Give the backbone structure.
Amino acid sequence: MDEVLISKAITESYMKDFIDSMVLDAAVVGGGPAGLVAAYHLAKEGVKVALFERKLSIGGGMWGGGMMFNRIVVQEAGKEILDELDVGCRMYEDGYYIADAIEAVSTMTSRAVKAGARIFNLISVEDIVIRDDDRIHGIVINWSAVELSKLHVDPMTVIANTVIDATGHAAEVARIVERKVGRGAIAVKGEQSMWAEVGEASVVENTREIYPGLIVAGMAANAVLGSPRMGPVFGGMLLSGKKAAEVVLARRA
């Protein structure tokens, strides 16, 4: 077995995609359900999009379902997105459907990649790119291992016309804008305690552009705008990801 050939194949293939992804139409930060759905819908419309996930695994909180019972619940509107992505689900009671969290994450990830989205895991976003027009023009990235080890290693830049913050409860990109831009540009209110019914509706309503070039989706949207969390009900997250993609597409029309 040629170990050098194997190493070259991995390095050359990865670097080709990585270099090509340094200039994007859209950069999605966070590989949970909202980020995956946003990347899928953008890619299938021909948008050059890459997703950057801090952790080793893609899927965010969806992997664990509710309290490590790897099942998720969606309502009718969310089921339509699962149907489009070919994720199996069954009715539990009228209007409520059960899906396998493992199937959902793996299938959504596969569909996003097959649609043309590039996914880079183990990469953290530590800053944003802002120019004199007070608009976000990209993200500043580093290996997650560098962040975790607290090493002083300078990052690199990805230029993107639009950035989608799908980093979940932490709302990481929005908090960078809040901290770095100042002048009351945005204020991250923080999420409220769990109220599934209100949280499900508000996560879609809150999905929007909150700063020029920055869209919030999923729980990041509720964290920024101060709405409740909703627990292992994921339909709103899926719909939020789709809406984030629609916001990007509407701007390109």
